[in-house]
Design a protein that fits this description.
- By secondary structure, this protein is an alpha/beta fold.
- The protein is built from 29 helices and 36 strands.
- The strands form nine sheets. It has a seven-stranded mixed sheet with strand order 5-4-16-15-14-6-7, with helices on both faces.
- A hairpin with a 4-residue loop joins strand 32 (762-768) and strand 33.
- The chain is globular, with a radius of gyration of 27 Å.
- It binds iron/sulfur cluster (SF4).
- The site of iron/sulfur cluster (SF4) has 14 residues, from helix 1 and helix 7.
């Protein structure tokens, strides 16, 4: 099918859980244009750098366009037969629990619904889990324990109306940038609004904060137990609310008071200044409207559920919930983590927020789906699931829209598990990633811009993702492939023709036997006509026949059997593994601003790749000095599970004993930077969420024999370097290199590296054998094709001017003479490293503009002047 375009389509950004609305149109020259949707209540027209660069990521480079079995292109029929016959054989021989699905918060709700229905309703196993397990399953478990339901009780407007916002374990400025923009705008309007950050690191979210508690990693539960004890000591409990709407306060208090006997003790335990802790506690207890927003820093812990409950306890104890401008707010990482929760995409859930271990719920879902084979109980959670694949207990696995070889902890073991799987099916839009390399069956999936359905954001708002591109090759929606397999397995109930059919069934199930005792209710959206579904505007659930219910828990009634919320006693526990003499530092992992997950999409954008070009380790200057590292050097990082080779970033933003490594890089983008290989696979005992934030590691200097970089118009397979990483730049790729062995023949080395073609290139070379310096440039048909610079020292020439030359149709002779120096001829400007991704502004351009325009503040809006 051709990639037909449609004018001005309203859809939703496919990245983070803010769920911004975007409008996609085309310029006069036919180029796609993505802008924030001014009418969407999540963002009102705002976008962050990732959303603004979406148009750069819709090309077909690297796409999987046809089904493949055992590396050979086949028809969809053959591929689907192989999947269904393989699954049927394993189920017949080993039972339904020998098969599994591992899905993703990137799936649309309609895909998720069908996957869950097939596995739990008809195959008869609950072995379906999702990568959202890695992101927010501890928050789900904490909600269930406290509220009796997985309910997020806060809206984005509450963040703006709060008088105190507490960000815990959340770098909102980078991970949910538009929500951060809304928060900053609200603070500008209301100067009395206070912002407290609780995070071991200094992050961009700390800019302008009133207080930053840089606590010792893993001690958040202790800090909030201390707050509960403080609220009690100050008489700040809401006695009427506690008596009417809660239970468990005494038990929770008893535990808190046992451990957090004084502010001093809490401060010592968290390694914080006592006065700062007191200040935070006073702010919380004296402020009525408090929102505590928490994210992966809380969830990705071996005690993440307890930490979530420690936060919720404080809100329940003080009655700060169910009213405007207040409440505990778990924000989701992925665009449709919430949709996955709605359909029961986690192995311990049933559909429509029903409980898999509740006999009534099981009966109702069986009735509704007309099945007598509903899964009898909880299935395997992500880490357990891959353990079961490794041991052979799970023999057939279908992975959709996620890259677990990179994203799960203990990555080497995960890869071993994948290599042992009898039948591994992977549905993906890309032809190559770390997980796909193990697949026997590859199914081409549609991606953003091509697929059509719904997603739900962090404030329970359902929005349409609409297609504006025709699907390339034979790519199909995931729900379609699932239905085809279900039919081949002989199951009824999978005759959906359109995502609207699936959404309608999903909405009907939410309303089925729901007399207000279940929070998730879409009865107001039941049986939408196709045109209504096509036109569906963003809507928050619950959405009953009476309309949207914007404020949950306003009546003080929750979804437990007695309709009272529960305060949960939180016994503080240390992280699963503590540093020791061999692994003395604590590894924390997380996101950078401009990349998303394993870079499948953002790695295609030159603008986004300019922000952080290399996988790096951030560490405190004192630690760097101890191990003999300087800024920009290379470091070997080792844990008990694996190792990585990373660029050193020294900053005072880390605590002394803690280091930070981004989660995005993988074997497609770097030689050895997949941080999951290092991460300890300890999981939370309640939620099963892994502890990504606390793995003991050791760091040492890596001294290479040579360092270099390669700029190449074509992507290369670099096997000659011990260290390499690549980043997309405008019209070319940038590789950073380092190696242990000096080649004997540099010219041969360069030609091997650049995969010499027959097109008669012109080579410019400089080889100083005494200094082991080698520089080469290749020009093909007048255009710069590649530049390679290698030397024994790390202080390589700058890349920025050379990079600009890739945009030229012909290299002038004056430029040719300078190519091997890496510096522009005198009189020409090197724009310098890009510092503003949105507009591609280099540091030198910026300095010049600041000088020329005498700009004195960011408000002078230099960015737009330059652009
Ligand atoms: Fe997309 Fe999130 Fe950025 Fe909004 S904040 S544009 S949803 S990445």
């Amino acid at each position: 099918m051709s990639r037909v375009s449609v004018q001005d389509v309203a859809t939703t950004c496919p990245y983070c859980g803010v769920g911004c609305g975007v409008r996609v149109g085309r310029d006069a020259d036919g180029a796609y244009r993505v802008q924030g949707d001014k009418s969407h209540p999540a963002n009102y027209g705002r976008l962050c750098s990732k959303g603004a660069a979406l148009a750069e990521t819709i090309g077909l480079d690297g796409r999987l366009l046809h089904p493949e079995v055992d590396g050979v292109r086949v028809s969809w029929n053959s591929a689907l037969d192989r999947v269904s016959q393989g699954f049927a054989r394993v189920i017949n021989e080993h039972g339904p629990d020998a098969v599994a699905f591992y899905v993703s918060g990137q799936l649309l709700t309609e895909d998720y619904y069908v996957a869950n229905k097939l596995m739990k309703g008809f195959i008869g196993s609950a072995n379906i889990d999702t990568n959202s397990r890695l992101c927010m399953s501890s928050a789900v478990a904490a909600h269930k324990r406290a509220f009796g339901s997985d309910t997020v009780p806060v809206n984005y407007t509450d963040l703006e109306q709060a008088d105190l916002v507490v960000l815990v374990g959340s770098n909102l400025a980078w991970c949910h940038p538009v929500l951060n923009q809304r928060l900053l705008a609200a603070r500008k309007q209301r100067s009395a609004m206070r912002l407290v950050i609780i995070d071991p690191r200094v992050t961009p979210s700390c800019d302008g904060a009133d207080l930053h508690l840089a606590l010792k990693s893993g001690t958040d539960g202790y800090l909030f137990n201390g707050l509960l004890a403080w609220l009690h000591g100050q008489g700040a409990g809401d006695a009427e609310f506690l008596a009417r709407s809660t239970g468990g306060a005494e038990a929770a208090l008893e535990v808190a008071l046992t451990h957090a006997t004084s502010v001093k003790i809490v401060a010592e335990h968290c390694d914080l200044d006592e006065e700062q802790v007191r200040q935070f506690y006073q702010l919380f207890s004296r402020t009525e409207k408090v929102v505590t927003l928490f994210s992966q820093g809380i969830n990705q812990s071996a005690r993440g559920t307890d930490k979530g409950n420690a936060i919720i306890n404080c809100h329940l104890y003080s009655g700060r919930i169910g009213r405007a401008g207040m409440g505990p707010f778990s924000i989701t990482g992925q665009p449709n983590a919430m949709g996955g929760r709605e359909v029961g995409g986690l192995a311990n859930q049933l559909a429509a927020h029903m409980d898999i271990d509740n006999p009534d719920h099981r009966r109702w879902v069986s009735e509704f789906w007309q099945t007598d084979n509903l899964a009898p109980g909880v299935g395997l959670k992500a880490v357990e699931l891959f353990d079961a694949v490794e041991s052979g207990q799970v023999r057939a696995l279908w992975i959709m829209g996620t890259n677990p070889a990179v994203s799960l902890p203990d990555g080497n073991r995960m890869r071993r598990a994948l290599s042992r799987c009898e039948l591994l099916v992977v549905s993906d839009c890309m032809a190559s990633n770390d997980t796909l390399s193990f697949a026997q069956v590859k199914l081409p999936a549609q991606t953003w811009g091509e697929k059509s359905g719904t997603v739900t954001n962090s404030e329970r708002r359902i929005s349409r993702q609409r297609a504006f591109l025709g699907a390339p090759g034979e790519a199909q929606p995931d729900w379609w492939a699932l239905c085809q397999v279900a039919r081949r397995l002989g199951y009824n109930g999978f005759d959906f023709e359109h995502p609207a059919d699936i959404f309608n069934e999903h909405a009907r199930l939410s309303a089925y036997r729901n007399d207000g005792e279940r929070d998730f209710d879409l009865s107001g959206l039941v049986d939408l006509e196709p045109q209504d579904y096509a036109d569906l505007q963003p809507v928050q659930w619950p959405c009953t026949t009476g309309g949207e219910v914007n404020r949950l828990f306003a009546d003080g009634r929750f979804f437990t059997p007695d309709r009272r919320a529960r305060l949960v006693p939180v016994q503080p526990h240390p992280p699963a593994l503590l540093p020791d003499e061999y692994y003395p530092l604590v590894l924390n992992t997380g996101r950078v601003r401009d990349h998303w997950h394993t870079m499948t999409r953002t790695g295609m954008s030159p603008r986004l790749s300019a922000h952080v070009k290399e996988p790096c380790i951030s560490l405190h200057p004192d630690v760097a000095e101890q191990v003999g590292l300087v800024h920009g050097a290379l470091a070997r990082v080792e844990s008990r599970r694996g190792e990585a080779l990373l660029r050193v970033d020294i900053s005072g933003y880390q605590r002394r004993g803690e280091v930070f490594v981004p989660m995005h890089w993988n074997d497609e983008y770097a030689a050895s930077a997949a941080v999951g290989r290092l991460v300890n696979p300890a999981v939370d005992p309640v939620s099963g969420q892994p502890e990504f934030k606390h793995t003991p590691v050791t760091v040492s200097a890596y001294q290479a024999a040579w360092y270099g970089f390669l700029l190449s118009r074509r992507p290369m397979h670099v096997s000659h370097a011990n260290y390499w990483c690549k980043a997309r730049r405008q019209d070319h790729w940038q590789y950073e290199l380092a190696g242990d062995d000096l080649p004997l023949d540099w010219a041969r080395f360069a030609r091997d590296l650049l995969c010499e073609t027959d097109s008669q290139p012109q080579w410019f070379e400089l080889h100083d054998s005494t200094q082991a310096n080698y520089r080469a440039a290749r020009i093909t048909e007048g255009r710069l094709d590649a530049v390679l610079i290698v030397q024994p020292a790390m202080d390589l020439p700058p890349r920025d001017w050379l990079s600009q030359l890739f945009g030229k149709v012909a290299i002038e002779s004056v430029e040719r003479r300078c190519l091997l120096s890496g510096l522009p001829p005198s009189g020409l400007q090197d724009t310098g490293a890009v510092v503003c991704s949105c507009f591609g502004v280099g540091v030198n351009t910026l300095r010049q503009a600041v000088r020329e325009h005498r700009l004195a503040s960011p408000e002078a809006n230099w960015c737009s002047r330059i652009a």
